[in-house]
Amino acid sequence: MALPIVAIVGRPNVGKSTLFNKLIGKRLSIVDDTPGVTRDRIYSKCEWLGREFMLVDTGGIEPKSSDSILAQMRRQAEIAIDRACVIILVTDLRCGVTATDYDVASMLQKSGKPVILCVNKCDRLGDPSPEFYEFYNLGLGDPVEVSSVHGYGTGDLLDRVLECIPDDALAEEEKSIRVAVIGKPNVGKSSLINRIAGEDRAIVSDIAGTTRDATDTEIENEWGRYVFVDTAGIRKKSKVYENIEHYSVLRSYMAVDESDVCVIIIDASVGFTEQDSKVAGYAHEQGKGCIVAVNKWDVVEKDGGTMKKFTEEIKLKLGFMDYVPFIFISAKTGQRVNKLYELINLVYENNSMRITTGRLNEILAYATSRVQPPSDKGKRLKIYYMTQPTSNPPSFVVFVNNQELFHFSYMRYLENQIRETLGGLEGTPVRFMIRERDSRDTR
C-alpha cells in the first residue's frame, strides 16, 4: 500500500518550496525569489513521530491566469489536491491576505479534504502580530504560525498533519526500481513520463528548460513497481545562464546518483550529439544500469535498414558503453513504450547481480587457459583469484603478482569472458579493482 499524500499548495512565492525542504530535511525543491520556480509536482517522504507520509510540493496557483505554463502549473496543483488526503495551504504574513488567497481557499474548501492553514514568514517568536488574525477570514479554522526559513512552528504543523491523516492510511512502502529519465533539453523526457503515467504528470512545452526540478512518478503494473524521475535537460555549462537552471542541472545529476537505472533519451529527429554522449557518460561513471531510448521514432522517414543504421551510428559514438541496449520509441504515440519495463527489469537485475567466488574462478581458469596472461621482460602476470565484493555495478577484485603487468587489453578480455558466460550483463558497466599480493601469501 502506498504512503498517504500531503500536498503543499498556495499562490506563488509564499515559501512553499522552502517549507517543503524544511519538513523533509533536505534541499530537494529549488528555492529562489523568482515567482514560479517550482512547476511540476515534487514528491518526497516525510517522517514525524515515527510515522511516514508522502509530501508533495506544487507550483504556485494563479486561478485566473491565461499563461500556458501557469495554466499547466495550476493543473499540476489540482491533481495533487485530488490525490492528497491532507492539504497544507501556505500563505505569507508579510503580504497579508490577498484576493488569490481567497480564491485558492475557496477551491480547497470545495475539495472536501482536510485543509491546514499555514501562515509562513512568522519570523519573530512571541505573540502573533495583528496581521496574523486576518487569516481567520479565509474560513479554514485556526492558522498555524510558521517560519520555514528558521523552522519555527514546523513541529506544530506536522502534529496537525498527523491528526488529519487516518490511521489506516499509514502503511509501509514496498521496494520500487528508481528510474531516472535523462537527456538534453527538448528530447521528450516529460512526454515519456506523461505517457507512462497515463496523465499530465509533467508540464510539456516546446520551450527548452520547462522542467526545472527532478520530479517523481510512481507506477505499479504487471511488470512491477517503479519510480520514474523526470529531470531537467542537461545542457553545456557555457549555455547555462540562470541560477535556476544551474540548480536544475544539479538536481538532474543528483537524480542519476540516486537512481537504479537511467533511461537516456535521444531525439531521433536530431540524431546523436556530443551532449548526448556527455549525459550518458555521467551515468556510466556513476556505475548505473543504462538504457538508450531513441524517442520521436514516429517522425523519422524509414526504410528496411533505418533502425540498424541508427543503432550502428550511436554505438560508434558511444563506444565506451558498448553494453547498453537500445529501444526505439515514440512518447507521443506510445510506440514500444510498454517494452521499456521489461528492459528496465533486465538491466536492474544485471546491475544488482552477485556471482559466487567459486563461479568467478571457474570463469577465470577457463579464460586464462584460452589466452595466457601477458608478460614483460621475462616476467609473466599471475592471477591468483577473483572475487566480487559489491554490486550496483558488479565490481570484481582481482589478486595478481604484479599490477603493472595487468594490461588494459587483458582486463577487457576478462570482462568479455564474464559477460559472455553470464549472458552479456546487458545494460550494466563492470568494474575491476586490481590488488597486488605476494605469492607466498596463501590466504
Provide structural commentary.
It is a single chain. The protein has 443 residues and is α/β, with parallel strands linked by helices. The strands form four sheets. It has a six-stranded mixed beta sheet, with helices on both faces. A six-stranded mixed beta sheet has the order 8-9-7-10-11-12, sandwiched between helices. Strands 15-16-17 form a three-stranded mixed beta sheet. 39% of the residues are buried. It is built from eleven helices and 17 strands. It starts with a strand and ends in a 7-residue tail after the last strand.
Task: Quickly list its features.
443 residues; Rossmann fold; 31% helix; alpha/beta; six-stranded mixed β-sheet; GMP Synthetase, Chain A, domain 3; 3 domains; elongated
CATH superfamily of the largest domain: P-loop containing nucleotide triphosphate hydrolases
Return the average pLDDT rounded to an integer: 81
Low-confidence stretches: 30-40, 201-214, 235-247
Q: What fraction of residues sit in β-strands?
A: 15-25%
Assembly type of the chains comes to single chain
Number of strand segments: 17
Number of domains: 3
Distance between the termini: 48 Å
Shape: elongated
CATH architecture tag of the largest domain? 3-Layer(aba) Sandwich
The CATH class designation of the largest domain is Alpha Beta
Q: Which class of secondary structure composition applies to the elements?
A: alpha/beta
Range of helix content: 25-40%
CATH topology of the largest domain: Rossmann fold
Largest sheet data: 6 strands, mixed
The Rg value, from CA coordinates, equals 26 Å
Strand arrangement, major sheet: 2-3-1-4-5-6
The helix count comes to 11
H and E string = EHEEHEHEEHEHEEHEHEHEHHEEEEHE
